[in-house]
Amino acid sequence: MERQHVLGLPWLICCLLTIRGLQQVDCTSSCYECTDDQAYTDFPYDPDCGSFGYHGDSILDSGIEDMCSIVILNSGGIIRRANRGFSDGQCRYQPSYTQCFCAGAFCNTNSFCGQCEYPRPTPSTTYASSTLTTMKLSTPGSSLSCYSCIDCPTVDVSTPVVEDASFVTCVSTVLLSSGTEVVRGGSDEDHTDGECLQHSESLMCWCSSDLCNDGTFP
């Protein structure tokens, strides 16, 4: 199989600036990017992506993302990808998946998110059967993470996420003229968790925990 090596425009600009001496930074975050679940078409399909020590041919070099991650789906599938806005060793818990983050080139391998106590055996770890049904909830830290997208009636593991210390709430806005168009993001406005306000052309709902703006609207 020919190695897939994707170079983004920001990466090229960054490297040109470095060559000209205008900045001295590491422009590249190199991560494995693949999935063994064909339902997730945003990522290159590789049936070996779920291997513990994956060293496959699907690679992303990015000048935007600064973290690599492993996503373990409740269905048993794996997604390896690049991310931004998270920290080394951080764990992210969602109803349909667990995600762990790492810093360093191609660090998103040789792990099944063991540091997150994810209930999946690794070559060196065995979990008690009672752990298999345990899910952790996100614990808000110094900053709030929110889904950030336009025209996204539903969210999944590929939906963009933003994290900012200025966020007080996450918000979902339904444009009533379309009936189904939803805009999601973070807000510096303080609202009661679960509060919704309807205007002439929109319905806005706020919540106050990580990635809470994942609701669907009829």
Description:
Keywords: Signal. Residues 1-27 form the signal peptide. Strand 5 and strand 6 (78-83) form a beta hairpin. The chain folds into two domains: 4-133, no CATH class; 144-207. The protein has one helix and 15 strands; from the N terminus they run E-H-E-E-E-E-E-E-E-E-E-E-E-E-E-E. 5% of the residues lie in helices and 32% in strands. It is elongated and about 55 Å long. It has a five-stranded antiparallel β-sheet with strand order 3-6-5-8-7, with no helix packed on it. Strands 10-13-12-15-14 form a five-stranded antiparallel β-sheet, with no helix packed on it. It has 218 residues and is mostly beta strands.
Strand order of the largest sheet: 3-6-5-8-7
Give start-end ranges of low-pLDDT stretches.
1-28, 121-141
Number of domains: 2
Gap between N and C termini: 45 Å
The rounded Rg comes to 19 Å
| Distinct helical segment count | 1
Please indicate the percent range of residues in DSSP E strands (runs of 2 or more).
25-35%
Strand elements, count: 15
Shape: elongated
Order of helices and strands: EHEEEEEEEEEEEEEE
> Helix content range of the residues, please?
under 10%
Note the main sheet. 5 strands, antiparallel
- Overall pLDDT confidence: 74
Classification by helices and strands: mainly beta
Keywords: Signal
